[in-house]
Amino acid sequence: MTDTILSTPAFMGVPPRIALVGNPNCGKTALFNALTGARQKVANYPGVTVERKIGEFLSPAGTRVQIVDLPGTYSLRARSPDEEVTRDVVLGRFQHEAPPDVMVCVADATNLRLHLRLVLELKKLGRPIILALNMMDVAEARGCRVDAAALSAALGVPVVPTVAVRRTGVVGLLNQIDRSMGAMAADLAPSPGGSPNGSPCGWSEPSAHDLRAYHREVESILAAALRDAGKPSLATRRIDAALLHPAIGLPFLFLVLFLMFQAVFAWAAVPMDMIDKGLGWVQAAAGAALPDGLLKSLLTDGIIAGVGSVVIFLPQILVLFFFILMLESTGYMARAAFLLDRLMGGVGLHGRAFIPLLSSFACAVPGIMAARTIENRADRLATIMIAPLMTCSARLPVYTLIIAAFVPDRTVAGGMIGLQGLVMFTLYAAGILSALAAAFVLKRTIFKGAREPLLMELPSYRLPSPRDMLLGLLERARIFLARAGTVIFAIMILLWFLGSFPAAPDGASGPAIDHSFAGMLGHALAPLLAPIGFTWQIAIALVPGMAAREVAVAALGTVYALSETGDALSGSLAGVLAADWSLPTALSLLAWFVFAPQCVSTLSVVKRETNSWFWMLVMIAYMTALAYGAAFVTFRVSSALLGG
Ligand SMILES: Nc1nc2c(ncn2[C@@H]2O[C@H](COP(=O)(O)OP(=O)(O)OP(=O)(O)O)[C@@H](O)[C@H]2O)c(=O)[nH]1
Ligand SMILES: [Mg+2]
């Protein structure tokens, strides 16, 4: 059989392609990761995967197989952009790609009544199908018993039980994939004319009548194969009785979010201090070991001061992601969406907008992409336009740096609440409230439309696996450090160059950076930013800050290191800022960062997802106006109050 696969014309040159198709949250991506060793995002709410992801594996028969992970969908009657991706890939309409050779339908064994309907819809396409009966561990625990052989006979497709998160059944699935490809190749050999690789013609959206017919067919299949339906999870019901309770639900959610910001400060303090000391030591050692000159300046002022000022925030990023990963993997995320549905509706947003917005706390790019799960275009655009107002993790270093420099580290409310954490919480709240306000305005002006109800499956609660949490955090650390080591590193060298050349003329007074290219740029921009209280050093830092938010911090590190007239940077960057800026300037810069248009990657993903330059330009314009206005008001009001 192996040989037939390898020598079959259909597979010559191109590897055979397999697609994972199924309802949302049934474990497709977990299975994809188990098969390919990839680390695609797996989380416990519907709508995690919103684009197609491609991987590869070697089948037991030695065939290199390409596998496509797809967004979850309930039917091929796609309604939202993520579902359209799945429909188009399955039907072979996606970017002129041939349809997959074999489809692996993934179904949640505990919810077959819902999941089998899609299997029937796919079967109608007349192409090879394998059913992966996933979540068998959960089914077993709930006393739900499915007879896989009877199910296979009733459905007419091979069935393989799996537990994707534990890789159970993966070998069985691989063998079945080989068998299905072998059978396909054997079918092909005698009649090369009837290519199953051609696009399946004759697909039409199932009508209401078809859907009813599928429903009846599912019932008769279940009658044959479901031995015991089992009981729904009691734990999930009990937890929901408390956490979705009208009086407890919202306060609990706010408590969780509040704790998250307190923890970002409290838990991260010690490791950050250690990194700070370590960096100081490295900087001093490098300074002492190297002779004065360009190399020493590049290393200590450019690289260590710049990149180091970003790396120090790693612990905070990890604490933030620890909370986000917990919310996502336990299943609480989908509950939070329901709890906030009323609030979202109040400003005209769709309930589904909650997950894109919460994801934007990590980064606006995946947040904006998650808006693909929203069917209505006006609702989707409104969500995309406000997503960058949520405070992304790259802004965390900027906030922390300024807070550390200007907000005293003490507790308020009788020692219960850290003041720095409270200020951080306020900044996040400012972002959230302004996003809601912007949505309110947008939905009443540009994106008018009736509000649609939120329909979303609530997943069962799950205990996050410590291993997955650890891997998830390591992945975040890797991404963060890789950025510090590549983008930020490169920009710092460039900035160091621009800040060091041309050198100051003989006999000039003041720091050399005043006479450099960067200094010229800063001084040129300064009049524009003077009304909002920014110094020329801030003006320099804002420009590379467009590449990535945290670069602004690194840039301040380098600019101030080069501005020092004495030896190397004395004391921490926060200390230098505290001495150089007035409090109104610091507050004004915080206000700027709450609203200012995001990094280049965010803007380009807005362009891609809306498929228009127009919305990207609108975003830049409205956010810049907001940022300038907010910084102006903050600077003027605080200057007046503080008599500055
Ligand atoms: N207990 C158990 N949990 C599973 C199994 N497979 C997946 N999960 C969990 O189910 C949740 C959903 O898994 P995903 O792989 O993200 O599901 P998906 O089908 O890709 O979801 P979408 O991308 O939203 O369509 C995650 O919390 C997984 O850890 C399984 O076999 N057993
Ligand atoms: Mg997925």
UniProtKB/TrEMBL annotation:
Give me the Gene Ontology terms describing cellular component. plasma membrane
Keyword presence, Glycoprotein: no
**Transmembrane region positions?**
248-270, 303-327, 381-407, 419-442, 479-498, 518-539, 546-563, 583-606, 613-635
Q: Indicate where this protein resides in the cell.
A: Cell inner membrane
Q: Which UniProt keywords apply?
A: Cell inner membrane, Cell membrane, GTP-binding, Ion transport, Iron, Iron transport, Membrane, Nucleotide-binding, Transmembrane, Transmembrane helix, Transport
* Start and end residues of each FeoB-type G domain: 15-183
The answer, when asked if Transmembrane is one of the entry's keywords, is: yes
User: Coiled coil where?
Assistant: none
Q: How does it sit in the membrane?
A: Multi-pass membrane protein
Q: Which InterPro entries match?
A: Fe2_transport_prot_B_C (IPR011640), FeoB_GTPase (IPR050860), G_FEOB_dom (IPR030389), Gate_dom (IPR011642), GTP-bd (IPR006073), P-loop_NTPase (IPR027417)
- Any GO MF annotation of the entry: GTP binding
Q: What is its main location?
A: membrane
In terms of SUPFAM superfamilies, this protein maps to: P-loop containing nucleoside triphosphate hydrolases (SSF52540)
Name of the protein in question = Fe(2+) transporter FeoB
Ranked from the top, the taxonomy reads:
Bacteria, Pseudomonadati, Pseudomonadota, Alphaproteobacteria, Rhodospirillales
